[in-house]
Amino acid sequence: MAISLTLLVENTARGMGVLGEHGLSWWLDTGTHRVLFDTGQGMALLNNARRLGVDLSQADAIVLSHGHLDHVGGLEQALAAAPQAALFMHPRATDRRYSGSDRKPKGRRLSTDFMETEAFRAGGRCVVVTAEPVEVVPGVWMTGEVPRETDFEDTGGPLFLDEAMTQPDPLLDDLSLYVPTAQGTVVVCGCAHSGVINTLRHIARLTHDAPVRAIFGGVHLENASPRRMDETIRALRGYHPYRLGCCHCTGFRPLLRLNAEFPEACVQVAAGARHEFGD
């Protein structure tokens, strides 16, 4: 399957009039179907789609990687732009969420009223809520819930389900997209709170150990320990990715390390970037 992958929203941007925003949104086009994966915070999505020639009204499906504001903040806009698109998410994507640390008495809210109240159901839209792998359009799959198997990966930060920060958030709603092609699987992560290696292991099982052609998206290594970085690099080497385009929550130093370890595979990704893969 030939696919085109356009980064609509990311922390950084390239191109005249394209805006950067802490968040993520991908546009995946197979030639016959189109998927919007995440929606950013909502300040850059419509502008960048227009600047990049992406017609959101043509989306067949909208998929949410998890329920954090920087991935679902633009959902209301996206749904208005694509009233016919089916919406896919994990059951826990509507949880109230917070981030914080012991330096502050209360957590900072990371969820939205629009998600928590399930306002996205208005108008009789097709909403698919599942923890299982699902083919969202022909040839494009979401992973569903990712099993946590490695002993070196965690959710990537101080994340909680309550404002008092007493209930750690396991981020069970974290999921990714994957597209099997003749030359291997193209993987697109939101934040990989499940761990990028856990995610790749899960996808390997779902694709009968097909080779990994490319890995794009946030892999939440910005708070990674030296051991986690070392083990992640070691495991990634075993997948031999042809393209590696990590961004958003990956972290500056981890990106430097990934570029040093995989100089031929790493590509720069920012809002405005487009990557194409033939059959």
Provide structural commentary.
There is one protein chain. The chain has 7 helices and 16 strands. With 279 residues, the chain is an alpha/beta fold. It has one domain (3-277): Metallo-beta-lactamase, Chain A. The strands form 3 sheets. The chain has a 7-stranded mixed β-sheet. Strands 9-10-12-13-14-15 form a 6-stranded mixed β-sheet, with helices on one face. Strands 7-6-11 form a 3-stranded antiparallel β-sheet, with no helix packed on it. Strand 3, helix 1 and strand 4 (61-63) form a beta-alpha-beta unit. The longest helix has 12 residues, at 226-237. The chain is globular, with a radius of gyration of 17 Å. It starts with a strand and ends with a strand. The mean pLDDT is 96.
In short:
The protein has 279 residues and is an alpha/beta fold.
Key features?
279 residues, 20% helix, 7-stranded mixed β-sheet, 7 helices, alpha/beta, Metallo-beta-lactamase, Chain A, 24% strand
What is the count of structural domains?
1
The helix-strand sequence is EEEHEHHEEEHEEEEEEHEHEHE
Characterize the largest beta sheet: strand count, sense, and whether it forms a barrel. 7 strands, mixed
Number of helices: 7
What does the overall shape look like? globular
Strand content: 15-25%
CATH topology: Metallo-beta-lactamase, Chain A
Percent helix: 10-25%
Give me the CATH superfamily: Ribonuclease Z/Hydroxyacylglutathione hydrolase-like
Strand order of the largest sheet: 8-5-4-3-2-1-16
How far the N terminus sits from the C terminus, by CA atoms, comes to 5 Å
Number of strands: 16
Low-confidence stretches: none
CATH class: Alpha Beta
**Sheet/helix structural class:** alpha/beta
Task: Write down the Rg.
Answer: 17 Å
**Average pLDDT reading:** 96
Q: In oligomeric terms, what are we looking at? A: single chain
